[in-house]
Amino acid sequence: MTEIDLHGFKHDEVEDKLPNLLILHYNMNNFPIRIITGKSEKMKQIVRETCEVQGFTIDDFWNDNPGAIILRS
Description:
Layout: E1 2-5, H1 11-27, E2 33-36, H2 41-54, E3 57-58, E4 68-72
Parallel strand pairs: 1-2
Antiparallel strand pairs: 2-4, 3-4
């Protein structure tokens, strides 16, 4: 499974860079993707909103790590 680890990124950096990373991985057919958010609720919210705007589905049922989000195309 492809991973995008957001540790060390600031919230505004994620808002800027994540959409491009998602499109890149989508074009390379690298799904599902595990996005490592850490424990920050704000980071999780940013990732969820970005994924929703891009039209990707978050798989809450398959994920067993509260510091990660699983994304399906």
